[in-house]
Design goal:
alpha/beta; 31% helix
């Protein structure tokens, strides 16, 4: 297929209020150094850069999965610097990691359990203080149908699915509860072209519904074709912020490396 054919048309409405703001953030291991950025409701913000550039770590720090040494993290106007990932999810912020096998999925558990993992504290997955197994199965069946899980067998162990369907099981968490911010870290790694197209459509539909979306990707076409705007990282810092009109291959690649070396 032509590369452009797998990307949906990006015609998002003007972005809304700021959902996430980082101001001068440094992590303790200095993978992230003095990073400041904003993410608004209804936009798709790309985080570009080479592997190890700090783009993933910046979002992990915001999510509470990486220790922050100094700086400010504000989510929906509130300081959340010391929040835990569990608290972030309950407040409507989810981070879907790049390595589904190590960080994203419980490989020996069922697709159902993996799909519902981030929503066990809210209906229809819970009634009062008890888990609602019937409600969980009904909602997971809806998610499996909507994402075209193949084979459509949510009770099967997730490690018995193909890579693309494992990715769908993890992405289903973004639909399992109401969310204001979803971070996709390398969302299409190890999946086939057809699944890529479905994931891209899924991401755009989330933004169209008013969710703030971040795509962390080393895949340059993803950044160029899906982002409302993008930040380019190099050695833990942001080298450039590019609006959609400025998002070209040349502009992004020029900031992948040290400025003097690129010149």
């Amino acid at each position: 297929r032509e590369v452009g054919a797998i990307f949906p048309e990006l015609a998002l409405p003007p972005p809304g209020e700021v959902v996430l703001e980082l101001d001068g953030v440094w992590t303790r291991d200095e993978c992230v150094r003095d990073v400041s950025l904003t993410v608004r409701r209804g936009e798709i913000v790309g985080m570009a850069g080479l592997v190890g550039s700090g783009k993933s770590e910046a979002m992990q720090a915001a999510f509470g999965a990486m220790a922050v040494d100094r700086g400010q993290v504000r989510y929906k106007g509130k300081d959340v610097l010391a929040q835990s990932p569990g608290k972030a999810i309950r407040s409507g912020f989810i981070y879907l990691p790049a390595d589904r096998h190590v960080d994203g999925l419980m490989m020996m558990r069922s697709a159902r359990e993996n799909m519902s993992l981030a929503a066990l504290d809210v209906p229809p997955f819970r009634t009062g203080i008890f888990l609602d197994r019937g409600g969980e199965r009904r909602r997971v069946a809806e998610l499996a149908d909507g994402l075209n899980l193949s084979p459509n067998k949510p009770e099967r162990a997730v490690d018995h699915f193909s890579g693309g369907n494992q990715q769908k099981a993890m992405l289903a968490r973004a639909l399992s509860r109401d969310l204001d911010l979803v971070v996709f870290d390398e969302p299409t790694v190890g999946v086939d072209v057809g699944t890529r197209a479905a994931i891209y459509r899924f991401i755009v539909e989330l933004a169209e519904a008013g969710t703030a979306v971040v795509i962390v990707s080393s895949d340059l076409p993803e950044i160029l074709n899906l982002s409302s705007r993008a930040y380019v990282f190099y050695r833990g810092t942001i080298q450039a912020e590019l609006a959609q009109a400025e998002l070209t291959e040349e502009a992004v690649l020029a900031n992948f490396f040290e400025k003097d070396a690129a010149e």
